[in-house]
Amino acid sequence: MSRDLQALEEWAGALLAKLDAGERRKLMGNVARDLRRSQQKRIATQRSPDGTPFAPRKLKVLREKQGRIKAQMFTKLRTARYMRVQSTNAGAAVEFIGRVSRIARVHHYGMKDRPARGQPDVRYAPRELLGFALQDAKNVSDLLMQHLKS
Fold it and tell me: What DSSP line would sit under 3-63, residue for residue?
């Protein structure tokens, strides 16, 4: 995967060097928005960048009721309000902002956290929220080619 990203970086770097700063910034904004959209879809399907499913939630015992958990994980976290896009003529980034960045970091790396005041610490299973998949690399190269054609 890292070799694919390095090859994409070398190929795109040479093409991007020929664009002026305004065009690069505009292209990086499009790339960042496209990456955010793909990350949001992937988080909604609860899959890691490599395609493996997220670790399932632990079931809470409420009134000894059986059944599946109907609420999805990270519904608010994947909205554009919390998943921000930064783009400059030098690069693009998709990141979580504010207090939710701590929540995202805890889940991404599988760290310990206290769910609410007065409760014991809980170790969360690692769930890779942000990452670069092979399909993302293909989408970035397609966006670059489309931008250069126009």
Answer: HHHHHHHHHHHHHHHTS-HHHHHHHHHHHHHHHHHHHHHHHHTTB-TTSPBPPPPPPP-ST
